[in-house]
Design goal:
CATH superfamily of the largest domain: Alanine racemase
Shape: elongated
CATH architecture of the largest domain: Alpha-Beta Barrel
Oligomer: single chain
Largest sheet: 9 strands, parallel
Order of helices and strands: EHEHHEHEHEHEEHEHEHEEEEEEEEEHHE
Bound molecules: pyridoxal-5'-phosphate
Strand content: 15-25%
Distance between the termini: 8 Å
Helix content: 25-40%
């Protein structure tokens, strides 16, 4: 891995011009980006993951790179560029602000806002920035119609139907009626109809080896909506249903487009999905040793003295903590990598610091870099976010998007 700090202009991970939104990704004022703790992101891994996923899809099926939550903590703009380089044709975001960030950075591909925008002002900004809103009710469809009617071009929207997730979307039985009503509005273009799977990461059904019961039911409902809309003589537009789990689970869930988040970043939504795809984790989290201490046996470490040294110990203080996105629940359960060795974190993880027991790593020096997530080189998968999420009872999605802007994001491809 290259140790360069800046990228050539035009590179997928070249730092964007420091616009106000991008400033949050820059190192802290006056600080070298690798001074304390940082996130390294491989755009090459993201591009390779898109290519690998597309090889498992029909050639005419599109891949939407889901870059919400700042690209699952990797940095939305560089992820979008790398995903496009790998063959992603459009992007999914959760909020208006996330969509505007892509547009301000010059991203031109179609962008779908997956969350619900309900304020006229938000929908107006959507129209102006050519972001596609998700429509779940007639109320928002009419707002879009009013906003777009004076603008000279129809506003592209996607209709969402709820087939069993019970979250966003119109009830699936209402779908065809809503599609008809939207099609009657002359300033709206129904660019797609989609739904979202609630259980696609469920264990494989041993007999059918494809769908779990809920995904099968959701698929049936979704297909019945599409059939009815088509029977009404309407164009359905782009059809999409699958998240990462659905994409890896079975091609019958792919339709015209898949919406891929977690797998884009190199992680599998469940251990039985995607083992043959060869996904590459795109993120490394690293931090530097800022102080070394020699202490005797019997010394309590960090808040609450949850850890007492059992032997004369060498302790390393590392400048990363829960305010950066390392869950405090991992206190005493985390290990970090240094030159191929796993070293235990001890005592409570604090807001900005943690302590590593480096008694067994006498070669570790002040200023050494330890790796908290990912590997020490490209051949080493290293520590996965699943290791963390399993240890603290959550899911890898939450671990990845928990990394905060205090950590500079650095591209690592030469
Ligand atoms: C977040 C999201 C996705 C991506 O989910 P992954 O499991 O990370 O692939 C897809 N579709 C919708 C509607 C989402 O909100």
């Amino acid at each position: 891995m290259s140790d360069r700090l800046s990228q050539s202009p035009g590179h997928p991970l070249a730092p964007p011009d420091p616009t106000p939104t991008d400033r949050s990704h820059q190192p802290e004022l006056g600080t070298h980006p690798r001074q304390r703790a940082w996130v390294e992101v491989s755009g090459a891994a993201i591009s390779a993951n898109v290519r690998a996923l597309r090889r498992s899809m029909a050639p005419d099926c599109q891949l939407m790179a889901v870059v919400k939550a700042d690209g699952y903590g990797h940095g939305a703009v560089p992820v979008a560029r790398a995903a496009a380089a790998g063959g992603a044709s459009c992007f999914g975001v959760a909020t208006l602000g996330e969509g505007l960030e892509l547009r301000q950075a010059g991203v031109q591909e179609p962008v779908l806002v997956l969350g619900n925008l309900i304020q006229p002002e938000e929908l107006r900004n959507c129209l102006q920035a050519q972001l596609m809103p998700t429509i779940s009710t007639m109320r928002e469809a009419l707002l879009c119609q009013n906003l777009a009617s004076g603008s000279g071009r129809p506003m592209a929207v996607h209709l969402k139907v709820d087939t069993g997730m019970t979250r966003l979307g119109a009830d699936w039985q209402e779908g065809p009626r809503l599609a008809q009503a939207i099609s009657n509005l002359d300033s709206i273009q129904l660019a797609g109809i989609y739904s979202h799977l609630a259980h696609a990461d469920a264990p494989m059904d041993m007999e059918l080896n494809t769908q779990d019961d809920l995904s099968r039911l959701q698929l049936q409902r979704y297909e019945s909506v599409l059939a009815e809309v088509q029977n009404q003589g309407l164009a359905v537009g782009c059809r999409h249903l699958a998240n990462s789990a659905g994409t890896l689970r079975h091609p019958s869930l792919h339709f015209d487009l898949v919406r891929v988040g977690l797998a884009l970043y190199g992680h599998r939504p469940a251990s039985h999905l995607g083992s043959g795809i060869g996904l590459r984790p795109a993120m490394r989290v690293r931090a530097r040793v800022s102080l070394l201490r020699e202490v005797p046996a019997g010394v309590g470490v960090s808040y609450g003295h949850r850890f007492i040294t059992q032997r004369p110990s060498r302790l390393a203080v590392v400048g990363i903590g829960y305010a950066d996105g390392v869950p405090r629940l991992l206190s005493g359960r985390l290990k970090v990598l240094h030159r191929g060795r796993l070293l235990p974190q001890v005592g409570a993880i604090t807001m900005d610091q943690m302590v590593i027991d480096v008694t067994d790593a006498p070669d570790l020096e002040l200023g050494a870099t330890v790796t908290l997530l990912g590997g020490e080189n490209d051949l080493d998968p290293g520590i996965s976010p699943e290791t963390w999420s399993d240890a603290c009872g959550t899911i890898p999605w939450e671990i990845l998007c928990g990394f905060k802007h205090r950590l500079p994001r650095l591209g690592t491809d030469s």
